[in-house]
Amino acid sequence: MPTPQTPGDRVSAKHMPGGPELATTSASSAAGLASGLIEAEAERRRRQAEAQREVLFADELLPGVGEEQLSLRRGLAAGGSATFLTLTALAAMDELESAALSVLAPDIRDAFGMSNGAIVFISAAAGAFLVLGALPMGWFADRCRRSRVIGWAGVAFSAMVFAGGLAANAFLFFLARFGVGVAKSSTLPVHGSMLADTYPIGVRGRLSALGASAGRITGALSPLAVGGIAALAGGNDGWRWPFLILGLPALAVAMWAFRLPEPARGQHEMRSVLGEVVKDVQPMPISVEAAFARLMRVRTLKTVIMAFAALGFSLFTGGVLTNLWLEDHYGMSSFGRGVVGSVSGVAVLAVLPFVGPRYDRLYRRDPSRALALLGYLILPVAVLTPIQWFMPNAAAFAAVGIPSLILMSASFAMVGPVTQSVVPYRLRGLGSALSAIYIFFVGATGGALIAALIISAYDPRVAVLALGIPATAVGGFLIVRSSSFIKNDLSLVVQELREELEERDRQLEDPENIPVLQVRNIDFSYGHVQVLFDVGFEVRRGETLALLGTNGAGKSTILKAICGLGTPSRGVVRLNGRTITYVSPEQRGRYGVHLLPGGKGVFPGMTVQENLEMAAFRMRRDPEHRDRRFAYVLDLFPDLKDRRSQLAGSLSGGQQQMLALSMVLIHEPEVLLIDELSLGLAPVVVQHLLAIIERLKTDGLTIVIVEQSLNIALALADRAVFLEKGQVRFTGPARELAERDDLARAVFLGREGG
Ligand SMILES: Nc1ncnc2c1ncn2[C@@H]1O[C@H](COP(=O)(O)OP(=O)(O)OP(=O)(O)O)[C@@H](O)[C@H]1O
User: Fold this and answer.
1) Spatial CB neighbours of 635, under 8 Å, sequence gap ≥ 6
2) How many other β-carbons are positioned within 10 Å of the β-carbon of residue 79?
3) N or C: the chain end with fewer CB closer than 10 Å?
């Protein structure tokens, strides 16, 4: 076994051995270095491009592709029509409630003595509440039984609608609206995720079109129903009745929603790809940050939501601007405008039933073509818009506007099926929430603001031409572009599912032998720069694994991915066989994964005792346990015992490292990740720390250590993984690595073969 280090065995470019002559630079060596760096970067880019191309399965292996055609009836029967009907009914209640607010706005304004501005603000704020609620709802959708989330959201919705009807003043009415907005925000993330997991992939387009049609029908009938009830009730308080009445059926549907069956997550993707369902019996809680980081790496999703955010700039203001123009420019009455609205609505309704089947058919044959179709539907709108807005009369204006509306609505109705297909199935709720935030907050709100600014200076036509044309062209172009990514993203879905099945079988075969830590197929990027390529290894209980490699090979990045400080763009991290890839660092800490960071891991302005208390903050409710842990670490490091009131910044480097290690060990880690234990420390201190690590090893702790000193790493480790430029070059017993002269030299000299 190699002996522990002397300072002379330190590494590479950071600590280049060999004396001052090696550090002497000349113009030619600088030029050599520069060209070496350029070559290295070109090589990294080549590997990055290769890695992105690498995962591409044949079309028929992708989920839902090449399957037999499934009729809508059979598709609905497969998941039970109750789920679709219940969710559609709840969405219809949303429409009714929105209609109640807009139709009855003047009555509500008068009843509470509000200004026009106040009632407009209350109505418009609903959109913001919806976005606010989308994130928590998405989070719940990915963590909890969705039927319960839908049920509770429905109960809250009905209670808030009822409260709105009873509100005694404008403020209470506003609060009720706030509640309604948040409850409504469950529609996109929770309903979307539930539908995708309940019904087969082959009917997603048709179901979405059917849902959109139902929404349009209720949207058209709602003003009539609401206005009718208010008129029947009559009087100053007539406006309250639609809200009070709507609360009851909403409650009934919500109660029914509790009974909906909870579908297995990702079951249709699994059936399609694996032929069976791999159940995640104890799913780990997902962190929003990790989920978003991962979702933004799904290129199809990212491009599609950017596209629809851009489209949102024109789509949501389009209706208002059209109506303003019809009145101001063509002098059309409100009745005429109503007729135009209704005819357009009917035209959209007539077309939607054809879009869903077409999308499903294309998706089955070639998902890229299905997605490109959505872009090609949008692009003509960029041409139709200027034609429409220069029409000589209202009838021509309306006639040219109808195809645009149809095309946009048809494309919009298919966003759900696309996003649900490419998002990792554990993140469906948050994926939809992310889309909602971009589309409604960035697109709709941003579009409304800019349109308002342009109108105040010019007129609606200028607003549409300046905003609508570029938004539509950019949106359409982005969707067409995203179609080139979809097969790659679906291939990643396949790869992940296959890996899950393989792992499940392995665990069933040998349940006693599940590694404590598994890192599988990890790709990791900082921004656009990929630094890890398909990295994988395992660590057994009680084992010490050394991660070695050249400078910048990605060793610290792997530790980040394991402890949750970074989210890989591909691949899985498992702890005791359970997936923790999207679990927050805090939660991983609770499960026993702790990192001793490289460099100074203490708060220099605090005393030793305060540092320890800070580290033990989570144990504040169990002071006895905390004191036992303090005693344990102070027993390990007696040097710290007498310095408890000393500022950490005034300790020696070695003592600071001991304090940092104590702050980690307080938590009784199950897996200890160490990033550079010995860096910058005197040999005698290193010896002392090594003795401690040996003791922890004897106690059975599992350790992954990144060490610049080859001797130290090999002295401690049972096994080693050698990385070069983000790829694993060697995995095996540590002593074998020591015998690999080429790799060992690379650690010293910062390049393979030195
Ligand atoms: N926060 C960051 N942002 C951008 N790039 C980063 C970041 N952190 C690391 N990198 C880059 O990622 C690559 C891998 O870095 P990492 O620190 O994981 O390597 P390492 O093997 O631990 O190297 P070292 O031994 O020098 O610490 C390097 O090219 C590095 O420059």
Assistant:
1) none
2) 22
3) N
Residue 450's SS3 state is helix
Task: With beta carbons less than 8 A apart as the criterion, state whether 309 and 438 touch.
Answer: yes
Question: Which amino acid does the sequence have at 710?
Answer: L
Q: CATH says 286-494 is which class?
A: mainly alpha
Domain edges within the chain:
81-260, 286-494
**From the CA of 532, how far away is ligand 1's center (Å)?**
10
Closest C-alpha among 213, 229, 216 to residue 100: 229
What H or E segment, with its residue span, contains residue 271? helix 267-274
Element (H, E) at 466: none
Residue 745 CA to ligand 1 center (angstroms) comes to: 20
Residue from 14, 532, 556 whose mutation best tests the ligand 1 pocket (most atoms within 8 A of CB):
556
C-alpha distance from residue 353 to each of 144, 249, 357, 401, 415 (Å): 33, 28, 7, 20, 16
**Global pTM exceeds 0.95:** no
Total residue count of the chain as it appears in this document: 754
Question: Who lines ligand 1 at CB under 6 A?
Answer: 526, 531, 549, 551-557
User: Is residue 133 exposed (0-12), middle (13-18) or buried (19+ Cβ within 10 Å)?
Assistant: buried
CA dist., res. 248 & res. 85, Å (int): 18
What is the distance in A from the centroid of ligand 1 to the CA of 15? 16
Establish whether domains 81-260 and 286-494 are of one fold: yes
pLDDT band at 68 (very low <50, low <70, confident <90, very high): confident
Neighbours of 628 (CB within 10 A): 12
ipTM: 0.97
Q: How many CB atoms lie within 10 A of CB 534?
A: 17
User: DSSP letters along 192-247, please?
Assistant: HHHHHHHS-GGGHHHHHHHHHHHHHHHHHHHHHHHHHHHHHH-STTTTHHHHHHHH
DSSP assignment of 651-698: S-HHHHHHHHHHHHHTT--SEEEEE-SSTT--HHHHHHHHHHHHHHHH
Report which protein residue has its CA nearest ligand 1's atom 17. Answer: 556
Q: Which CATH architecture has domain 81-260?
A: Up-down Bundle (1.20)
| 137, 440 contact by CB (below 8 A) | no
Asked if 203 and 76 touch (Cβ cutoff 8 Å), the reply is yes
The pLDDT tens digits of the residues spanning 100-117 come to 887 888 888 888 888 877
Nearest CA to ligand 1 atom 6: 526
Q: Calculate the CA 463 to chain-centre distance.
A: 33
- Write the DSSP string, 315-333: HHHHHHHHHHHHHHTT---
Please, what is the angle between helix 146-166 and helix 240-257, to 10°?
160
* CB 277, CB 271: distance < 8 Å: yes
Q: Model confidence over 35-53: pLDDT tens digits?
A: 777 777 777 677 666 665 5
β-pair partners for 704: 545, 673
What is the C-alpha separation between 490 and 62, in angstroms, rounded? Answer: 6
